[in-house]
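Risk register update: the risk of archive-format incompatibility is retired. Evidence:
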Amino acid sequence: FYYPPRVTPFEAERIALEAVEETECYEEYNLHELEVEEVRTDRGDWEIEVEARGESCHTEEERGWTFKVRIDMYTGRVRRIRSDPDCGCT
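Archived output:
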C-alpha cells in the first residue's frame, strides 16, 4: 500500500523555518535571511535544508549557517535538526 504524505512540501518548509527560529542559535547569533535551499524525501521523512546568515561563533563577523531539518511527513513532527556550525560552536 502507498499512503500519500499528510504534510505537503510547503507545510514542511514552514515547519522547518519555524524549527530553526526556535533553536538556541537563532537569537544567540542573530540569524536572519532564512531561506529554504532544498526539499527532498527520505524514507517517510522530509529533509529540508535551510540557509541563514548570522554572526560567527567567535567574532561579530557575518557568516553563513546551514540547517538540516528532518520532519515526519505523516505527522509533521520534527525528528532532528542539525546545524553547521553546531549551535554550541564546538
